[in-house]
Amino acid sequence: MSRPLFIAAWFSPWSERARFALDHHRIDYREEAYVPMMGEPLLRLRTRVFRGPVTVPVLLHDGRVFRDSVEIARYTDRLGKGTPLFPASAEADVTRYVELATGIMEASRALSVSRMARDERLQFENLPPSVPAPLRPVFARMGTRFMTRKYRLDARDLEQDRATIRRGLEQLRTELRGRDTLLSDFTFADIAVAVSLTLLRPVEHPVLPLGPGMRAAFTEPGLAEEFGDLLAWRDKLYAERRSMQGAAGPAAA
To answer: What DSSP state is assigned to residue 31?
Structure first.
């Protein structure tokens, strides 16, 4: 079989949870950095999605296209060598936690992009190194506007988003109850929830080499302090479970 091609936005939690699954299963893949706007025409061609929204992460393998982080993670269970991330006995519970984590990430994205829109430094750090220096100021501003329009973030109520995040975190705190994993074994539920906390405060790990600007954009100080126990759980899980065995490093888009 050919080597899978993983197309991802390096800073995106959606990309990170698919990447986590690929690395958990020790899959040898090549990662290509996706740049919003610049990379969209080629992404549409590769995925054969010519109308409507097109997003990353995407995994291309042996003529097949996987267009969603959960779809990619499920495929890694069939392709890889690690313990299953979607055990049949826990399917419903894994799905429930993934939906909860996705809701937290969607609300958190609105807060982080709002911070980026107000700070040019954050916009610059949002760009991968492959963007030429003369074009970085233009693409930084355009990229933030593009994200705002694409996900309709200007129409969101940020205080309501904070309330959504808090409710989700309170539920997680109640259900985790000091355990190392959400269910009896490590599953994609743990990956999805741990990655969702990136937008509360980013984890310190080589797989997410964020600069100070992006760390500020991804930090919600009040909630990070209130739910420090969940961040400690996330940090422990990353330290024990997060390998970087599969990727040979991101390539320029």
So the answer is: E
